[in-house]
Amino acid sequence: LMGQGRLDAAEAACERVLARAPHYLLAQVNLGWIALRRGDHARALELLAPATRDDGDRKAALYATFYVGLV
Predict the structure, then answer these.
(1) How many CA atoms lie within 13 A of 62 on its CB side?
(2) Dihedral, CA of residue 9, residue 14, residue 17 and residue 23, to nearest 10
(3) Which of 6, 27, 47, 71 has the CA that lies 20 to 30 A from 17?
(4) Are 58 and 23 spatial neighbours (Cβ–Cβ below 8 Å)?
(5) d(CA 49, CA 61)
């Protein structure tokens, strides 16, 4: 969905995932990327920063760190 530019649908999907699994960092990182794409840098940082510090999900931390560098 994100790759297709369907940000509203992607955002809704990520929020559904987080409602069921609040600690699933990759969904949070995806929401941060969506905020970044929309130009909401403050929201992007709010969503991405915690994932950069998490050692439990290396993939999410890698993406979050990359996206923070784009802000």
Answers:
(1) 3
(2) -170
(3) 71
(4) no
(5) 9
